[in-house]
Design a protein that fits this description.
With 643 residues, the chain is an alpha+beta fold. Helix content is 38%, strand content 21%. Helix 3 packs across helix 7, helix 18 crosses helix 21 and helix 20 packs antiparallel against helix 21. The chain is elongated. The N terminus is likely disordered. The protein binds adenosine-5'-diphosphate.
């Protein structure tokens, strides 16, 4: 056959072959990722093997599933295998499987483009942390380029006659060609990189290294991972060493979740998690349970220590993997997890759901519902234990996922509040750290019957609110709400152990003595007419004296169900809905400004209005609300200070 190279990308081999031999370019993002892999400084290069083996296992899963659900497909579980071969002389490593295989389009689609998740990541904020993230995401197949110069993938799809070979030496593209292959499945051959001063790649062609990597990362893979292992023994009556090779199964094949807890080391749990759920950090908690009874199941679940990068994205899909007797039937079964525990990763294996179950039927399946209920209580128990026994871990957890629990209380009209209320934490003015409601109530002052809270953007800002001074002086503990959902969740909760919640910026705090109250009432009454003038000037619900301010002249509070903080939150949302809190300007009765106001009321009402406008603006600023007419206020201040 004649061949002519007509450009770097096209080699002509006769008319028919020309199409096949055209070198194709990787999609832009794939190329970028590939560059990263090829030039990777990522230290944990060995994970590439686990990625290839997991892919092989997934491919077998797909075919095995077919054999279970399609009677025309006659295959037994024992027919399946993965085989890993090393060749020291050629410096190659091969991973072979007899799974579902790929046809030409699939080779193109699957190996020419990377998974969406990876694409997203590398476009977004993580640009500088690229190498660190490699182990985290489903970059799978491409990781093999960390250790290879060239990769060949020969694959034959189940049911097809033709096989294809995909070849690539990295970022300059790939070719796909027709080729011969007897067995259905995929063979991936890595041509390993040459050793450098820093990096030893030839070890991946070493039997012993590969055997230990399989044991380390892929022991739980359900299908046998075979290797031809060399055994040496001395000949009798001579020093000569005899070698022979034998095919052996390297992995134990028992899925991790089916092993008994006592057999599993923490490292194994963690490695399984990091591999399966693409996290580069260990999980905070492992929940491994086995339930026998009307509805039997094994579950292996994890609470991550960090939120997955897409966790707070709209299209984040919660769910656990659902297996039926070790066969994966659904990758994300959302019905197994309540929304408020959507951060949990893991899997459930049960003999009680049928393999052919569809997504729609699954939703009504009573078995699934029973399992979901049981799982919910296991997760709750685990969190409660963490709170009791590993406080620091729990705080880490809460800082990451606490908002999820708060939404859990708010959503569904509070039907889940009893599940969740003891898992909540808020920042405490006294402890300067997160505390639970139970802890708050237990140390409430004698006679205190409300749980005090204050809202703001940050704990520092709340700490500076005028309203907090007096309570702190009187040694009351205040919970600081900095998430916008906090106050909404608390309104649903209404009370905790019989104690109502009170926003210190909107309620009449019941901390004054009877005399103090009477005195204040009288002062307010005596100045009623003055307050009327002031109210008109700024058009709000009320103006009055208060005793709750220690040093500050004014503060803004509200009456009714809508607090100033809620007004801010709702109005900031991208909907047409706006609400207004009924605002009250409160003036510190003991502040020198009071005398001035009273004097102006008698002598110059115009001037009183100006002062009122300035005071009101100050109160709004402290609350973090905008001023309607900044120019007017600025001019007023200038006018007054020029006098
Ligand atoms: P991921 O496994 O996270 O989807 P990969 O880059 O590892 O990403 O693989 C991309 C896709 O290529 C897989 O989803 C699968 O469809 C296909 N694939 C990879 N390896 C094999 C294999 N050994 N047999 C069949 N298909 C495979």
């Amino acid at each position: 056959m004649t061949s002519a190279k007509i450009s770097d990308n096209i080699i002509l081999v006769g008319e028919k072959e020309a199409n096949y031999m055209k070198k194709k370019q990787f999609k832009a993002e794939s190329k970028r990722l590939l560059d990263l892999m090829i030039n990777s400084i990522y230290t944990n290069k060995e994970i590439f093997l686990r990625e290839l083996i997991s892919n092989a296992s997934d491919a077998i899963d797909k075919l095995y599933y077919l054999s279970l659900t399609d009677r025309k497909v006659k295959l037994e579980k024992d027919d399946f295998y993965i085989k890993v071969e090393v060749d020291k002389d050629k410096n190659t490593l091969t991973v072979r499987d007899n799974g579902i295989g790929m046809n030409e389009e699939e080779l193109e689609e699957n190996l020419g483009t990377i998974a969406q998740s990876g694409t997203l990541l590398f476009k977004e904020e993580n640009k500088n942390k690229e190498t660190e993230c490699i182990g985290q995401f489903g970059v799978g197949f491409y990781s093999a380029f960390m250790v290879s110069d060239k990769i060949e993938v020969v694959s034959k799809k189940f049911g097809d006659k033709k096989a294809h070979i995909w070849t690539s030496s990295g970022a300059d593209g790939y070719t796909i060609d027709e080729c011969d292959k007897d067995e259905t499945g995929t063979v991936i051959t890595l041509h390993l990189k040459k050793d450098t001063d820093e990096e030893n790649y030839s070890k991946y062609a070493d039997e012993f290294t590969i055997e230990s990597l399989i044991k380390k990362y892929s022991d739980y893979i359900k299908y046998p991972i075979k290797m031809d292992l060399t055994h040496e023994h001395k000949k009798e009556d001579s020093d000569e060493v005899e070698r022979h090779t034998e095919e052996e199964v390297i992995n134990s094949m028992i899925p991790l979740w089916k092993k008994s807890k006592s057999e599993i080391k923490e490292d194994e749990y963690n490695a399984f998690y990091m591999d399966k759920f693409y996290d580069y950090e260990k999980p905070l908690s492992v929940i491994h349970t086995s339930v026998e009874g009307k509805c039997s199941y094994n579950a292996l679940m994890y609470i991550p220590s960090k939120a997955p990068y897409d966790f707070y994205a709209k299209d984040y899909e919660k769910g656990l993997e659902l297996y039926s007797n070790g066969v994966l039937i659904m990758e994300k079964c959302g019905d197994l997890l309540p929304d408020y525990f959507s951060f949990v990763k893991g899997l459930v294996d049960t003999p009680d759901v049928s393999l052919n179950i569809s997504r729609e039927i699954l939703q009504q399946d009573t078995q699934v519902k029973t399992i979901a209920k049981s799982i919910e209580s296991k997760i709750k128990k685990e969190l409660e234990e963490m709170l009791q026994e590993r406080r620091e871990d729990y705080e880490t957890f809460f800082k990451t996922f606490g908002i999820n629990l708060k939404f859990g209380i708010y959503n569904g009209f509070g039907q889940n509040k009893d599940v969740l209320k003891d898992l909540l934490m808020f920042y405490s003015s006294k402890e300067k750290k997160l505390v639970t409601l139970k802890e708050y109530v237990e140390r409430m002052k004698e006679g205190q019957d409300k749980i005090y809270y204050a809202c703001g953007e940050t704990t520092d800002k709340i700490d500076l609110l005028p309203q907090t001074d007096k309570l702190k002086e009187e040694d009351y503990e205040i919970l600081y709400f900095t998430d916008y959902v906090d106050e909404f969740a608390i309104q649903i909760l209404q009370e905790y152990e019989g104690k109502k919640f009170a926003n210190i910026a909107s309620e009449n705090l019941d901390i004054d003595s009877k005399e103090e109250k009477e005195e204040l009432e009288k002062a307010n009454k005596d100045n009623k007419d003055m307050f009327e003038v002031m109210k008109k000037a700024i058009n709000i619900k009320d103006v009055r004296f208060t005793k709750k301010l220690k040093n500050h002249p004014v503060c803004l509070t509200s009456e009714g169900n809508v607090s100033v903080e809620m007004e801010k939150v709702i109005n900031a949302m991208p909907t047409d809905e706006t609400i207004t809190a009924e605002k009250v300007l409160e003036i510190n009765e003991n502040h020198p400004i009071v005398e001035k106001l009273q004097k102006l009321y008698k002598e110059d009402k115009d001037e009183l209005e100006k002062y009122t406008k300035i005071l009101y603006s100050q109160a709004r600023l402290i609350e973090g609300l905008p001023i309607d007419n900044p120019t007017e206020i600025s001019n007023l201040i200038c006018e007054l200070i020029s006098k």
